[in-house]
Amino acid sequence: MTQPHATASIGVVGLAVMGSNLARNFARNGNTVAVYNRSPEKTRALVAEHGNEGDFVPAESIEDFVASLERPRKAIIMVQAGAATDAVIEQLCEAMDEGDIIIDGGNALYTDTIRREKEVAARGRHFVGAGISGGEEGALNGPSIMPGGPVESWETLGPILESIAAVVDGTPCVTHIGPDGAGHFVKMVHNGIEYADMQVIGEAYQLLRYGAGMEPAEIAEVFREWNSGDLDSYLIEITAEVLAQVDPATGSPLVDVIVDAAGQKGTGRWTAINGLELGVPVTGIAESVFARALSSATQQRAAAREGNLPAGTLAADIAALGIDRAVFIEDVRRALYAAKLIAYSQGFDEIKAGSEEHNWNVDPRDLATIWRGGCIIRAKFLDRIREAYDTNPELPALILDPYFKSELSQLIDPWRRVIVAATQLGLPVPVFASSLSYYDSLRAERLPAALVQGQRDFFGAHTFKRTDRPGTFHIEWSTDRSLTQTDA
Ligand code: NBP
What we know:
Blueprint: E1 10-13, H1 17-28, E2 33-36, H2 40-50, E3 56-59, H3 62-67, E4 74-77, H4 83-95, E5 101-104, H5 110-122, E6 126-133, H6 135-141, E7 144-147, H7 151-162, E8 167-168, E9 171-172, H8 182-210, H9 216-226, H10 234-244, H11 254-257, H12 267-278, H13 283-296, H14 298-306, H15 325-358, H16 364-370, H17 381-391, H18 402-425, H19 430-443, H20 449-460, E10 473-475, E11 483-485
Parallel strand pairs: 1-2, 1-4, 2-3, 4-5, 5-6
Antiparallel strand pairs: 6-7, 8-9, 10-11
The protein binds nicotinamide 8-bromo-adenine dinucleotide phosphate (NBP).
Nicotinamide 8-bromo-adenine dinucleotide phosphate binds at residues 14-19, 37-39, 42, 78-81, 84, 87-88, 106-107, 132, 135-136.
């Protein structure tokens, strides 16, 4: 093994799928990269298979790894999120010196990142929680990177992260998001939006497949076409690929032989929980998490099917509803676009609320910029989002941007029609439908919240505000039902 001279400008700890690809990306882009993995076989394999791609400095102990880094030392941790990350931080803190920078590139929960930064800062080292999106392929060829942590660390790290990030229109898909947990927070919401984006695509597929009776290969063609318009995105592109794929074992459409139980690793759930905590209705994201959970409740689903739950009067297909196939396909496209727009609008609301809660000063324009390339939700649509926040960084909601408002005027009727049809067909569209309810709630002149306040005052004397005068009021429900002002 190479002797540890301080020659590496960056180091990567953890050389599984993400770490090894990230290390190769650093090396391919002219950085001398130190590499270390708990089990040395992975380090040896990386250097053996890809050592010719650039300058690697392999190490078999954390001490040698740290010694091989130029000062201020910069090491990216790419190990399993949770306890493994804490263990590696501890080892690095021990071996590093004041001013060195530890970067956690895993999918950490942002509250862990806030805690870790405090602990690491107390020991005189810098800690940067960086969200990295794009999976294996992004890590190798250019991810979207969302670093938080101290701004001084960004000054040191910026150029090296820019050297490996995806580039769109000459702009690298990386920028300093904000202090402490801001980077991991934003990555969490990014993943939540990704859940919603995948679910709305799934709902569109379900409608075309079981409402319009189309075959997966035909639907693949529809998605290919959609990918050349407003919906142009990585997720639509790969959807067409998946739908066109034939199962090598049986010759059936692959999608038909895949068990319909979707997994999750937690970032969507965290986003939904955080939305609840912040009081931000991220209904599209939450419904997507629930949809995955319901899909995986296989025993309960089997019991429900076997129990023949009444379905009511259903139409067999769109023809029975008198809906033309071409019209339906276009309506579904528009409903998908509308529901996607709501999910993004809600996600940006959550980021704004989180940023305010933690004083992070996250700029939504930065996110729309760095999500245009490298990451899973990359899409043309993000250019529009960036333009919206460029025009008005204080937009109360993304859907209030004039461009998106005018888009919605073209989407709203098809969106309503699709939900009516889905209901008549008995096809579940949790995100399409809940997004429309959210939209109608936002627009509503009056919400039933007035009645809820009345109920709360009735059973719990929780008081209410009036529309016609200031103050807090209560009705003496159990006696003479007189009105009292409780804050007089
Ligand atoms: P994994 O999440 O599968 O983790 C495996 C790595 O963690 C191996 O290098 C393993 O070392 C190391 N490790 C473990 Br497990 N416990 C350790 C410990 N106590 N001390 C030191 N090392 C330990 O790797 P991954 O899929 O490459 O993901 C890395 C990070 O990137 C994760 O946080 C993940 O959530 C995040 N991420 C993944 C993706 C993706 O698409 N996979 C995308 C974006 C972010 P060993 O070889 O010695 O067992």
